[in-house]
Amino acid sequence: MKTRAWIRLPSGKHLDLINPDPQAWLDSDLADRLSRTYRWGGESCWPRPLSVAQHSLNVLALRSTMTETPMSAGAALRELLHDGEEGLLAFDCISPLKAVLGAPFKEVSDRLTDAIVRRYQLPAWDDMDYRLHKLADELIAASEAVHCAGWPRNEVLDVLEIKLPILEEDPLAEIYDCQPWEPWTPEVACERFLEKLISLNSLNSLSITVPGI
Hints:
Elements: E1 6-8, E2 14-16, H1 27-35, H2 52-63, H3 73-80, H4 84-89, H5 95-120, H6 127-147, H7 153-158, H8 171-176, H9 186-205
Antiparallel strand pairs: 1-2
Helix pairs in contact: 1-9, 2-3, 2-6, 2-9, 3-9
């Protein structure tokens, strides 16, 4: 019997997780799944967990403040989709487990990432952009650990080994006039992620620099 490796998406389309076709999903599928894929193993000090969709928007918002020169639409889209494969898998694997799952999991994840890169024509990382991305990602992660997942501040350094400061201000609070660090509902996260995805993808197709995120 043939082994099934595809999943049915909200749109009704099918995605083969082993050999993913870059055209196998709609933007709305990706936004929906990222809004229902949760960080921190689903742990939260709020009534609901934090979605990867909200995390991705926050990394983009913070990264956009790190340089005086505005990011290109492609670079901004790359930030927004930096965890896109997690939505296709519906699984944000914690780092210690990734090491145990090893090469087979990494291969599946890398294939999905490659499909996203090809689908959205994302530019390759250069050294400076990648360093700034990792800085934004880790700053947001350290802050989420405390403000969203309820980790003690000392464990961010001692256990997570993140040596960066914990942000008190939520970069998304001013943009969306929302409660700082409060996880959004899946419906809100999906809507806001999809709006940004469609906007940046449209600009990227025209190779336009984004003056503000």
